[in-house]
Amino acid sequence: MKGQSSVRLVAIIVLLLPFLLGGCSDFFGKSSPEPSASEKSTDVPSPDPSNAPDSSGGVTAYLSAWERLDYEGMYALLSPFVKKDLTEEQFVKRYQKIYDALEVSNLVVTALPAEHQTSDGAGTEGTAVTGAGTAVKGFTYHVTMDTAEGSISFNNQGRVRKTVEDGVTSWLIDWNPSYIFPGMEEGDTVRIEKTQAVRGEIVDRNGNPLAVNVEAAQLGIVPSKLGDSADTVKASMAKKLGMAVQDIDRKLGASWVKPNLFVPIAVVVDDAVKDELVALPGVSAQKVMVRRYPLGEVAAHLIGYIGEINADELKMREAQGYKAGDMIGKAGLELTLETQLRGTSGKAAVIVDRSGVRKSVVAGQDAIDGATYKLTIDSALQQAIYEEVKADEASVAAIQPVTGEVLALLSSPSYDPNAFVQGVSKEQYQQWNEDPRHPFLNRFSRTYAPGSSFKVITAAIGIDSGALDPDRAKEISGLTWKKDSSWGKYYVKRVHDVNPVDLSQALVYSDNIYFAQTALAIGKKQFAAGAARFGIGEPLPLSYPLSASQLAGGGGAPSGDIQLADSGYGQGQVAMTTLHVAFAYSALANGGNIAYPQLSEADSAFAGKLWKEQAMSADTAERVKADLVKAVASPEGVGHGAYIAGASIAGKTGTAELKASKGTEGQENGWFVGFNADDPQLLISMMIENVQGRGGSRYVAPKVKRVFEQIK
């Protein structure tokens, strides 16, 4: 967890190394030593300040050259006492190394007026005389610059020394290392420190870990230490790590590898495995922080995983500070929340003394750790649902229907995201990638024909539009029906020959003909407008990217009567995610309203708000909800497989047929959507592919029932 993993990697780039100046190793040279008697540049032991030449011209010229980055011009204005221990090449190189490394730009250097001056022995208002009789004057200047580590701004002091050469008196710069940055002394260096931000973690509603940082062992090989045991060591490592020897050879054969370098092979979190392998010749381990996904395949598609940035990703994100070798979100929330989870690395230019001890920060910022995301997901519920569908090709969403909190979101079959962090083997990846059930496919992010689960929406639109009288029994004879001869050979088919049939019976027996006729009675325009009240045609307002639902191709209304009739029972071109179906049903438990979807604490601003107000009327919600309780409680009901004695489970089955034409065999996807009408704390929307030959939607209902029985 983060409390155990605040390990920061500090990359130190030394910008300034001490120069060897004769017998002196001081990079910066000496600060203007007092001259000997033979070096004195004035014949006057105690000059009269009132007669001293003006020193401002030399200061102005020096600061102007500095602002232009004219280092040679700056050096020409230094006093002889500086120059004797500091060559022009050394002086120029110092500034260039610092400024180039800091990427200095927009440099402005200005002299401060007299009222801002502080004297170094003397201010500009007067002249001091050193012990050796040499006159000096102080001046103060202001520096601002932009650097790669941020803006730098400071006031600093300098001084000029009176110099007489060939009878000409001048005031030259008495330079020392502190002119570069305040506080810099002989022997000090400037270096860049980089501090890696800790990636934010992801936890569930109860704080249980979903994506966390843990300490692990990076196992590697030093080729020169393998000796004659190379083949044996590689074979042992490969077997223990579940990888191929060829994978190890490929890593050892990289172009950068040298005999004495540590070559990373794999990351392990199991100490027993680490201890066993480091006992082998040439194998060693280094501590690293890695991402860990405690739920593994149970939440793989939702949480995703991170991996090393590839060339294409680097090209897109280089401007954001990414570099080769960085880890980046590859899928799921790790990808969606990459910017927030990644944080901001720290980077600073600091002054350090001869011992490497930091003295001061010239510019920069501390690392800002990534944000921790607390999801509304319930890990226990996610696990319970996954156990029911892990052998199926399924999409499942569970919500709190009144608050709008998403409690579970999963896709099956799945994969273990930890394998990608530790280094997935070629064989394992190939197995997943070639699996005909497509474990990498995120089914909950995709839309499917909702089949008969859509009949609830058709019923609500019909009642609220006045096109459907729920108490009037319709005369429907036989198992097939078509509007008229204009439909040719096309027809609508139902499973149970019930006649007459009202809304309650139509939901109990899931009568396709009843709802096809209802859709026609509503009409295309009104049907589309009613569906829009449920958000159909727009994406769910969540940070996680989900496909937008649709009523018909192109986002419009059904194109004709046949498509309209088919849409009435969730076929035609109707397509919805399991999560969107769940929110549509939530109106039944919420007085006809749909709460605003929430997936994390970041969505808490929407708590208590509505996404869709009065998707159906409150009276309609109560009527349809009561009918769905009957559809489960009745032994004849197609949803009876979800019946729990003592609980009022309201639910609806659905079987979506994917066929090339009527009368042919094809794939069938089974649905069940349900909640406890007396205590609407949990609503589950489950879709399982390929239920043909397994009882259709009747295969799904018992799975939802078992989840309800486990979660109290």
From TrEMBL:
PROSITE patterns attached to this UniProt entry: PROKAR_LIPOPROTEIN (PS51257)
GO cellular component, one term: plasma membrane
InterPro entries linked to this entry: Beta-lactam/transpept, Beta-lactam/transpept-like, MecA_N, NTF2-like_dom_sf, PBP_dimer, PBP_dimer_sf, PCN-bd_Tpept
Residue ranges of domain Penicillin-binding protein dimerisation in the record: 195-358
A Pfam family this chain is assigned to: PBP_dimer
Main location: membrane
Positions with biased composition (Low complexity): 32-56
Every Penicillin-binding protein transpeptidase domain range: 395-708
Key words, A-Z: Membrane
Spans annotated as Disordered: 32-57
Ranges for domain NTF2-like N-terminal transpeptidase: 59-188
Gene Ontology process terms (BP): cell wall organization; response to antibiotic
Molecular-function GO term, any one: peptidoglycan L,D-transpeptidase activity
SUPFAM superfamilies: beta-lactamase/transpeptidase-like, NTF2-like, Penicillin binding protein dimerisation domain
Localisation per UniProt entry: Membrane
Homology family: Belongs to the transpeptidase family.
Protein name: Penicillin-binding transpeptidase domain-containing protein
